[in-house]
């Protein structure tokens, strides 16, 4: 504690030396982490329930801890190799003219970028662990609270999710603030012979890449684990043996419940960490570039603005979480209760965003620029709210799309699949229209800010889109809270089922589980929307970086050049190949689980009569080994593809006399991969969530209820949708941002 206190004090002093803004952001993040600790203590003080409940919870915790340690051990080794590669890439590359003027050597840049990468990877891993740590402890407490009432159980799950969310967001902003402050101190920013403040954000790209690298492998490994166990448990347990979900007789049930934690909680924490890190760093780069080109002497406000907004995010999200009371005298729809907290957070964000714009983005030369950028932020906030509603409409069984899938289940398995694919494809249209309107509107609002370059041309458009992205992510902590709520509620339902609790308790947990499915689906829609906007920022930051290294304008990419068009085509193909490998990895792993569960039912007939106990550990071991083996191939494909495209086309350009062909081909690769990835992720996430809730709707008694032919068809649809919504879809969120961050880090390799 003494060492931690001393480190915190030193970092606070460094932050204050950089600017008063950095000091305030530092304090806000530390305060958020302290409040998260309060939520953790409150959650852990809740009763853990009966001995049977605790026994199931302990088995889930042991399985999750074991897989996490093994998975992150492998990820650490992969990250270590990548860090060495980054060091040597930067050691033998050129530096920017500004870095040369400041006396920064290639060795210094290599060390700093490698340290940034390792820091981002480490913090991303911690974020993943935090999500899992709270979920494996909160699940049994939610199950226990369900014996008292629905509101009590909901509050425990929500506050446990809030602990994970506030820790992740607080750590993300704190990490970037500390690195920014250290680099500013090392290079004497503000002194006569020191480096310009505009150059510091470009040094942080390694942090974003480290976060993306870990998040991708965490999402792949966790997604393969959770869905392989889920598919195996459902196919043999529900379809072949006719036993309920989470029945203790199913040998794969513990593996399934473990998967909820390592896939949905741990991986999502790392995913959000890298989303915010990538968005913050790209926005800082764009803000610094705009201020430099506009001749704004003090660029601190534009550079620090993203950090201020996300520090505010922690505060408004904490208010949203605490606005939901622990008890209620009347029965309410759990989703409406959660949405009420979101409305509180987003309302406070609207007010806070305006104050932040007025204080940070107003300059003497451009007194009304802050107002236009505030409009950009409001566009982003409205985009976030719209995305949440669109995702709810297509995945909640209160609305028509899911009910159409349920109705299609009455005529068989094939018609269920057809209806689900149709709903998934249809669901891509509305979000794309919303994204398109948001990007164009924010771009032109930014241009109307009055900020121009020396030639009098407006240059605020790109920063306007950055501010819109910040607006969309201004309540990210509350959205992650709702996301973590889902798997905690799912786990609680499994514990209640396995410990043979009364039917009334099961009904409460089933209702929370159904709401959790909707919140997971809505947060995935939110995540892909923010990924789309963040990728646009990262793409713009990549073009700025190429300009910084070459000293030449790099504002446009001509896809009529054959090699550039091929680069784009390869980017689109990457998304489909990556998705295919992710989905087939689940299929192969699930086959191993199916064979093992069938073997146990055949060799131990007493399992069905409760006279013999299944070997849960065997299924856990099979899924863990398979997930770790299968996650490497799609992950390596994602990391190596942009590097290969850039290096190959750089050499083609050298041979054919085409200037910067490697950088142009990579830019096209990024553009096409982003577009294809957005559409593919929307389809996979929505189709999977709709199939899942169509099954849940039938289980409420519609179309014959549990055990009916319609229910069996719905289970098949849910099985197909599992790797869609929990493996390939969420992994694409990370993929399109990681492609951008890796090209930012490796850009010097693609230059002539």
TrEMBL record:
Transmembrane segments: 25-44, 74-92, 104-135, 156-188, 200-218, 344-361, 368-394, 428-446, 458-480, 525-543, 564-583, 635-653, 665-684, 732-751
Cellular component GO terms, alphabetical: endomembrane system; membrane
Annotated Pfam families: H_PPase
Topological category with respect to the lipid bilayer: Multi-pass membrane protein
Enzyme Commission numbers on file: 7.1.3.1
Entry keyword annotation includes Transmembrane: yes
Main location: membrane
Subcellular location per the Swiss-Prot or TrEMBL entry: Endomembrane system
Keywords: Ion transport, Magnesium, Membrane, Translocase, Transmembrane, Transmembrane helix, Transport
GO molecular function: diphosphate hydrolysis-driven proton transmembrane transporter activity; inorganic diphosphate phosphatase activity
NCBIfam families named in the record: PRK00733.2-1, PRK00733.3-5, V_PPase
Protein name per Swiss-Prot or TrEMBL: H(+)-exporting diphosphatase
Originating organism: Ostreococcus mediterraneus
Lineage: Eukaryota, Viridiplantae, Chlorophyta, Mamiellophyceae, Mamiellales
């Amino acid at each position: 504690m003494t060492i931690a206190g001393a480190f915190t004090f030193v970092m606070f002093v460094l932050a204050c030396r950089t600017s008063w803004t950095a000091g305030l952001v530092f304090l806000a993040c530390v305060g958020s982490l302290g409040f998260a600790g309060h939520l953790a203590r409150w959650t852990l003080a809740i009763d853990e329930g009966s001995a049977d409940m605790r026994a199931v919870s302990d088995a889930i915790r042991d399985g999750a801890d074991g897989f996490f340690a093994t998975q992150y051990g492998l990820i650490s080794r992969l990250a270590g190799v990548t860090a060495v590669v980054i060091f040597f890439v930067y050691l033998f590359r050129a530096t920017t003219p500004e870095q040369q003027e400041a006396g920064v050597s290639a060795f210094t840049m290599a060390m700093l970028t490698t340290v940034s990468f390792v820091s981002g990877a480490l913090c991303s891993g911690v974020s993943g662990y935090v999500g899992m740590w709270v979920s494996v402890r909160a699940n049994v407490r939610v199950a226990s609270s369900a014996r008292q009432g629905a509101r009590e159980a909901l509050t425990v799950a929500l506050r446990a999710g809030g602990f994970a969310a506030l820790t992740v967001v607080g750590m993300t902003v704190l990490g970037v603030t500390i690195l920014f402050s250290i680099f500013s101190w090392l290079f004497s920013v503000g002194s006569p012979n020191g480096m310009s403040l505009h150059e510091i954000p470009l040094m942080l790209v390694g942090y974003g890449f480290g976060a993306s690298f870990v998040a991708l492998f965490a999402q792949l490994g966790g997604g393969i684990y959770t869905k392989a166990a889920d598919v195996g448990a459902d196919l043999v347990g529900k379809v072949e043996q006719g036993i309920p979900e989470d029945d203790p007789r199913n040998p794969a049930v513990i593996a399934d419940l473990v998967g909820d934690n390592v896939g949905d909680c741990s991986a999502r924490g790392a995913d959000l960490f890298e989303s915010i890190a990538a968005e913050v760093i790209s926005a800082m780069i764009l803000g610094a570039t705009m201020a430099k080109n506009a001749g704004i002497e003090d660029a601190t406000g534009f550079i620090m603005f993203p950090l201020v907004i996300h520090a505010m995010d922690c505060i408004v999200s904490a208010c949203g979480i605490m606005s939901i009371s622990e008890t209620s005298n009347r029965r309410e729809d759990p989703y409406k209760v959660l949405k009420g907290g979101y409305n509180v957070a987003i309302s406070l964000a609207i007010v806070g965003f305006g104050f932040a714009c007025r204080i940070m983005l107003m300059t003497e030369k451009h007194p009304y620029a802050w107002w236009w950028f505030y409009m950009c932020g409001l566009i982003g906030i409205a985009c976030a709210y719209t995305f949440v509603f669109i995702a709810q409409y297509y995945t909640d069984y209160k609305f028509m799309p899911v009910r159409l899938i349920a109705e299609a289940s009455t005529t068989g398995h094939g018609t269920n699949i057809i209806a689900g694919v149709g709903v998934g494809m249809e669901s891509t249209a509305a979000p794309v229209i919303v994204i398109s309107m948001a990007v164009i509107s924010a771009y032109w609002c930014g241009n109307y800010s009055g900020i121009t370059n020396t030639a009098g041309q407006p240059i605020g458009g790109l920063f306007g889109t950055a501010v819109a992205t910040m607006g969309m992510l201004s309540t990210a902590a509350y959205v992650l809270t709702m996301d973590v709520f889902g798997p905690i509620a799912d786990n609680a339902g499994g514990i209640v089922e396995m410990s043979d609790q009364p039917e009334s308790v099961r009904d409460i947990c089933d209702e929370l589980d159904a709401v959790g499915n909707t919140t997971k689906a809505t947060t995935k829609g939110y995540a892909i929307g923010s990924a789309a906007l963040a990728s646009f920022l990262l793409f713009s930051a990549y073009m700025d970086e190429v300009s910084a290294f070459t000293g030449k304008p790099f504002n446009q990419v001509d896809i009529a050049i054959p090699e550039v068009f091929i680069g784009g085509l390869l980017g689109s193909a990457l998304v489909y190949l990556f998705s295919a490998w992710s989905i087939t990895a689940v299929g192969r792993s699930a086959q191993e689980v199916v064979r093992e569960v069938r073997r146990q039912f055949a060799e131990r007939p007493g399992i069905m009569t409760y006279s013999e106990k299944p070997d849960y550990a065997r299924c856990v071991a099979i899924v863990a080994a398979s997930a770790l083996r299968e996650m490497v191939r799609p992950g390596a494909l994602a990391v190596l593809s942009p590097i290969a495209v850039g290096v190959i086309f750089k050499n083609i350009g050298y041979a054919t006399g085409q200037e910067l062909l490697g950088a142009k081909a990579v830019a096209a690769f990024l553009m096409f991969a982003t577009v294809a990835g957005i559409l593919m992720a929307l389809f996979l996430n929505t189709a999977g969530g709709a199939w899942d809730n169509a099954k849940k709707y039938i289980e409420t008694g519609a179309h014959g209820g549990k055990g009916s032919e319609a229910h069996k068809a719905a289970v098949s649809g849910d099985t197909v949708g599992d790797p869609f919504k929990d493996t390939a879809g969420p992994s694409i969120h990370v993929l399109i941002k990681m492609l951008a961050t890796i090209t930012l880090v490796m850009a010097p390799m693609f230059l002539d």
